Design the sequence.
């Protein structure tokens, strides 16, 4: 191959387009839940491509044509739909090397929101996003001037273009009047896969990843052919810039991620054990996730600062290395590291060692084969020794990149994986459509060289299965019938899944019983053409970890339960409305509750008519009518076959717009909507950079509403009562100007010698007046040595509190203010004989202020107006008390904030226990403003202490 390589400078010709496109598509999944960029070509080396229909699909997958700019015929492109509109901007396709227009280039278009939705679908069960994109993308051909008329751009449009050996991507925004997509040489990486004896190996999936320091990120993949070759196209699409992160930050990020994984594993074990997560675990997990998110935001902020300092956001930075590895568990994984800025043109050799095969056989309860369809994942176990040929930092990433997956169809009990590295320990993960049934087995022995090893994987003890056979009135089985199966108990639904019977009409439904809830029933819903079929049968008592066979279930045509029409407030029929059957279950809640009857639901036709079919059942039944953009309605209890005609009012909305100070952060102001005194909606105000905001409160039933605008932690800014919303109407409120209603304050704290006082452990207290003139206290947490807060008052009385310092009080105006806090001497409290009285008990000594501090006296929460969330503070942080643990002697030292009279309290507990008994030891008149530490003696009353110990012993 003699064509020149694309240098880093040439790559820079793509400008922000490629980088933006990579950022856009990096959220996309591959059907396995793994993030990866848009892969238009990685599957081109896979034998599975033969199943892809249409030339347009193969073009989207990246099949190459001879070099040059030969026009492409527009015929025989049946796999893609026509362009939806052509009155948008003109896009020009140019050759990045020559800046010449490329006539006849193929251009593929997809809206960004579609890309994102495809990414979400790809993370689900079934086909990945790529197959869906191929069916959705629009294909057009550039004219002689290399131009394409685009459809109207609603938000952002993703564009991929190719011609001969050239390829390029970009995104087009709504305000782009002359968009351009630049094509560069379609760089490829060619890899030959060989085994430990240097023999080419076919059928090996190869992954192309980037090394992002903290992790390996999968970018593309392909499967080796009979010669062991894999060709990965569009390499320029996979280049990823490395963020400038220092080693300390990398280590901190790694520690946080490891902690989150540990906590999530613990949470999963709790859930698997059917126990609820305790508040401590939930709080720790939330705090760890918040910390990781905040660190990521800080890293991105430093990157923005560096770009601003450099004055050029397009300055080239280091590119992440490519890492090529086999997607096959290996005892000693071999990888190829390829610099991204100089793609080699030679064929790279990937040697993967000796190979075998693995058959995973799933065993259900009672040792019977498990027929249920599921996805089985095979990965290298973490129990393997660290490989000598791979950087240890890559091992965890390789475990993810080399994970193999296979779908087990209904009626089968086995899946086969090949090739698999010889001598490796394996982890097997089993994933079902319902995540509740996922489980793993770790550390299983893999195959020897050229061996096919069978691994039996049994379901956990909590896994139960309900089996049977569906038959018709003639006794013949309903073979390969797509059904919806529901198991319910006294409190409603227990398990429900779509299930397809096998050739003998048999079904298998996994069940997880959280707690006994009999009597049980099985409901079957199916359809033969337009005829609804079903059954409702009692189920013998279900047991955890057992297989329950209920024999033949007679499935017959279902009778009519209810019918009617659904219209709007104008009397016009609503097409696509939902009519849902509901049943009253006396045991579902304290006083019973109406619950949906699963699968008994109908969608209205063009005339608004619906009909519900199902098995008659005991108890009261009703119909709930719903439609997007309308109110809902419920009938009263209905007899079988009754008619319920429903009228749904169109929903309305309220539009509030205006302007706020351009420094006001998002989330500092909330818009609240009330009806009859109850909150029905609350949304954060989202001003743009220029301060303009537009808040749409939609989906409102007709009625009268009150709207308020509230400043976080302060109070109401303004109110608009009595807003009348008519059916289908959007009320536009007069524009609001908040620029003279909100003021910004920034307080900085310094201590001795003017040194910054970073997070003194107490909140900043501010006494401010709200718009109604009412005076109150607000509390704000520190961020480093400063606090920024926003108020509706033109002045504020603030108090800076810090343990061991005198409170600093000041009346301040909006803007920046620096306050100095003066350090105080701690008090030394002697309690002669107390340690001897209590023995080895734990004792917390507290001094509680007896007077009025003039500040909030109870525990309070400080609100961060700019970042959201709040933080709790106890009274010790407000100068009301101070404390210290009693050591081996009878003397404790503790910081105070105020002179005055304090009550000395001892809180006594058995060592290692939280149960405490509190007793008053005496009183102290503290003077902490002197130059030396005050020494005070309080003689503990022996009788009082002894009584506390007796009470503690009796608990």
Sequence:
């Amino acid at each position: 191959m003699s064509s020149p390589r694309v240098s880093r400078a040439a790559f820079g010709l793509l400008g922000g387009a490629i980088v933006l496109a990579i950022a856009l598509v990096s959220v996309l999944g591959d059907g396995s839940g793994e993030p990866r960029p848009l892969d238009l070509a990685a599957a081109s080396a896979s034998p599975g491509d033969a199943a892809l229909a249409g030339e347009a699909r193969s073009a989207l997958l990246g099949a190459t044509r001879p070099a040059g700019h030969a026009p492409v015929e527009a015929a025989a492109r049946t796999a893609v739909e026509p362009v939806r509109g052509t009155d948008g901007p003109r896009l020009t396709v140019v050759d990045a090397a020559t800046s010449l227009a490329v006539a006849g280039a193929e251009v593929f278009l997809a809206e960004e929101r579609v890309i994102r939705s495809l990414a979400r679908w790809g993370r689900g069960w079934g086909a990945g996003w790529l197959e869906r994109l191929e069916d959705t993308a629009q294909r057009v051909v550039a004219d002689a001037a290399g131009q394409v008329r685009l459809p109207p751009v609603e938000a952002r449009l993703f564009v991929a273009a190719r011609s001969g050996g050239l390829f390029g991507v970009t995104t087009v925004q709504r305000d782009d009047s002359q968009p351009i997509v630049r094509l560069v040489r379609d760089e490829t990486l060619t890899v030959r896969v060989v085994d430990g004896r240097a023999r080419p190996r076919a059928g090996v999936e190869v992954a192309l990843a980037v090394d992002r320091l903290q992790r390996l990120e999968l970018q593309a993949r392909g499967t080796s052919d009979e010669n062991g070759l894999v060709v990965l196209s569009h390499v320029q699409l996979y280049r990823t810039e490395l963020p400038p992160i220092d080693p300390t930050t990398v280590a901190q990020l790694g520690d946080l991620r490891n902690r989150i994984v540990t906590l999530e594993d613990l949470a999963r074990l709790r859930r698997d054990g059917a126990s609820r997560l305790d508040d401590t675990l939930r709080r720790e997990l939330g705090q760890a996730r918040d910390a990781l998110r905040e660190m990521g935001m800080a890293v991105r902020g430093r990157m923005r600062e560096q770009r601003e300092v450099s004055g050029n956001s397009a300055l080239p930075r280091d590119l992440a290395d490519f890492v090529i590895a086999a997607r096959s568990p290996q005892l000693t994984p071999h990888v190829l590291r390829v610099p991204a800025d100089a793609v080699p043109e030679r064929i790279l050799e990937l040697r993967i060692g000796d190979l075998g095969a693995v058959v995973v056989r799933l065993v259900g309860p009672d040792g019977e084969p498990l027929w249920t369809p599921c996805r089985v994942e095979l990965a290298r176990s973490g129990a393997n020794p660290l490989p000598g040929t791979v950087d240890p930092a890559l091992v965890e990433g390789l475990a993810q990149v080399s994970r193999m997956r296979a779908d087990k169809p209904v009626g089968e009990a086995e899946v086969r994986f090949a090739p698999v590295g010889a001598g490796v320990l394996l982890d097997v993960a089993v994933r079902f459509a319902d995540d509740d049934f996922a489980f793993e087995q770790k550390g299983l022995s893999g195959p020897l060289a050229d061996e096919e090893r069978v691994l039996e994987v049994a379901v956990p003890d909590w896994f139960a299965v309900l089996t049977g056979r569906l038959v018709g009135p003639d006794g013949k089985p309903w073979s390969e019938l797509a059904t919806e199966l529901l198991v319910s108990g006294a409190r409603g639904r227990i398990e429900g899944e779509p299930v397809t019977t096998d050739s003998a009409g048999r079904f298998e439904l996994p069940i997880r019983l959280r707690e006994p809830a009999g009597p049980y029933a099985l409901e079957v819903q199916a359809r033969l053409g337009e005829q609804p079929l079903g059954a409702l049968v009692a189920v013998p008592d279900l047991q955890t970890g057992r297989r329950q066979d209920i024999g033949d279930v007679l499935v017959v045509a279902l009778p009519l339960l209810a019918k009617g029409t659904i219209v709007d407030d104008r009397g016009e029929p609503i097409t696509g409305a939902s009519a849902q059957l509901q049943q009253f279950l006396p045991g579902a809640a304290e006083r019973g509750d109406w619950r949906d009857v699963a699968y008994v639901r109908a969608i209205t036709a063009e005339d608004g008519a619906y009909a519900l079919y199902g098995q008659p059942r005991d108890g009261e039944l009703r119909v709930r009518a719903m439609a997007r953009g309308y109110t809902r309605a419920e009938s009263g209890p209905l007899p079988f076959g009754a008619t319920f005609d429903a009228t749904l009012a169109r929903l309305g909305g309220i539009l509030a717009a205006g302007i706020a100070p351009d420094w006001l952060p998002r989330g500092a102001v909330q818009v609240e909507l009330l009806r009859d005194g109850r909150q029905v909606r609350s949304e954060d105000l989202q001003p743009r950079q220029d301060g303009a905001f537009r808040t749409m409160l939609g989906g409102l039933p007709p009625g009268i509403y009150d709207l308020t605008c509230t400043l976080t932690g302060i109070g109401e800014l303004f109110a608009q009562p009595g807003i009348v919303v008519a059916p289908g109407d959007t009320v536009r409120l007069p524009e609001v100007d908040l620029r003279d209603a909100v003021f910004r304050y920034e307080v900085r704290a310094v201590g001795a010698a003017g040194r910054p006082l970073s997070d003194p452990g107490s909140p900043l207290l501010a006494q401010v007046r709200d718009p109604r003139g009412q005076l109150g206290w607000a509390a704000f947490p520190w961020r480093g040595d400063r606090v920024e807060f926003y108020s509706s008052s033109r002045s504020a009385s603030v108090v800076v509190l810090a343990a061991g310092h005198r409170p600093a009080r000041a009346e301040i105006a909006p803007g920046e203010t620096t306050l100095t806090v003066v350090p105080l001497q701690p008090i030394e409290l002697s309690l002669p004989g107390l340690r001897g009285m209590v023995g080895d008990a734990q004792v917390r000594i507290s001094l509680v202020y007896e007077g009025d501090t003039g500040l909030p006296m109870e525990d309070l929460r400080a609100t961060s107006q700019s970042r959201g969330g709040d933080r709790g503070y106890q009274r010790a942080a407000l100068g009301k008390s101070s404390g210290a643990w009693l050591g081996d002697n009878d003397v404790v030292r503790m910081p105070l904030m105020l002179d005055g009279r304090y009550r000395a309290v001892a809180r006594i507990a058995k060592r290692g226990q939280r149960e405490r008994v509190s007793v008053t030891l005496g009183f102290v008149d503290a003077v902490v403003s002197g130059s030396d530490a005050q020494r005070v003696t309080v003689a503990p009353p022996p009788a009082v202490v002894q009584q506390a110990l007796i009470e503690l012993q009796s608990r």
